[in-house]
Amino acid sequence: ILFLVLITVSGKSEGSFVGITYVDGAVEKGAVCLDGSPPAYHLDLGSGAGANSWLVHVEGGGWCNNVTTCLARRDTRLGSSRRMATQIAFSGIFSNRPQFNPDFYNWNRVKVRYCDGASFTGDVEAVDPATKLYYRGARVLGAVIEDLLAKGMKNAENAVLSGCSAGGLTSILHCDAFKALLPVGTRVKCFADAGFFINARDVSGAAHINDFYNDVATTHGSAKNLPQGCTSRLKPGLCFFPQNVAQEIRTPLFIVNAAYDSWQIKNILAPGVADPHGTWHDCKTDITKCSKSQLQTMQDFRTQFLKSLNDGVGSSLTSTPSSKGYFINSCYAHCQTEMQETWFRSDSPLLNDKTIAEAIGDWFFDRNSFQHIDCAYPCDKTCHNRIFDPKDYSI
């Protein structure tokens, strides 16, 4: 909730509000959200030199891994386009002002709404009459892209598929498929913000996130829509981890991630199920409240994260250094591209003296390659470390 408030507040002064578009024609093709409602997105049209350039950015919001958790989402904005705000603030990477978004401000900027609970990988034909849940995420994304192609993206000179969190994972998993839909001459690249989730054990030693993704893949029938190079070798659930798929992606890919990603610390490293006595509650609320031993556990997590990153994109770097890029800072943060303060502002996080916006812009337009990893916490004084509501006991 705090994250959404921050977007709205920054949007009032540094962004604009953009209305929703429903892809009503997709319903007859079965391309629907969890509750059967149509796909939706927000589009702010480009202008001038950016009129034929497209940024397609996918909203985040976690996943649902079984009937119970998917039912809990179905009647929210994460499962139904009927529950979505009809106007949302466009700031950060969506801003239409050059002083806040120097490289993409005049592009066609799209925010794809997330309503399937499986990073747009699901496709189950059968619908249980008792729950009326539709697991059709792959069709939803396909319908949105088809609609955008018809609105001019088929003539794109430049195109990006990006996203935040579960949407960042979407941009990795669907990167090559997105490129294949665009003209051969189009410059197409993908980048993921806070989407590089790693297969780490939690503080109790359990493989919590691994088991969770296995359930997501089973519930949504994801196997056929995950990268085949991965599913031919590994169980479908393992193909939700970028460390197992990123190396095979042929389209240029950029990873923006905090090494101490706050969502991963809260939900992969120290989920409530692994911390029944709430020992980690204060630490997850505010990194400055972590004990020495908790900080050491988080440093170990960073080490695992960097190894997973290397497994995913490392060996690709030697052959084509500019095709894979990354901005890995040592902040306690999650999703840094959609908020103005962390995307491009005078006080934004820096790495190698570049903001995230500058690093991605340099990489996209081939001005400079960018592959930088921050020193370990707490060395980076430019971070905007997240502080959560201490009364939120789901932390």
TrEMBL record:
Entries under Pfam families matching the protein = PAE
What family does the Swiss-Prot or TrEMBL record give for this protein? Answer: Belongs to the pectinacetylesterase family.
Q: Does the keyword Iron feature in the UniProt annotation?
A: no
Any Gene Ontology CC annotation? plant-type cell wall
Annotated GO biological processes are:
cell wall organization
Question: Which EC class, in a word?
Answer: hydrolase
Q: Which residues form the signal peptide?
A: 1-15
Enumerate the UniProt keywords alphabetically. Cell wall, Cell wall biogenesis/degradation, Hydrolase, Secreted, Signal
The protein in question is named Pectin acetylesterase
What EC number(s) has UniProt assigned to this enzyme? 3.1.1.-
Q: Name one GO molecular function term.
A: pectin acetylesterase activity
Biological function: Hydrolyzes acetyl esters in homogalacturonan regions of pectin. In type I primary cell wall, galacturonic acid residues of pectin can be acetylated at the O-2 and O-3 positions. Decreasing the degree of acetylation of pectin gels in vitro alters their physical properties.
Organism, per UniProt? Genlisea aurea
Q: Where in the cell is it found?
A: Secreted, Cell wall
The source's domain of life comes to Eukaryota
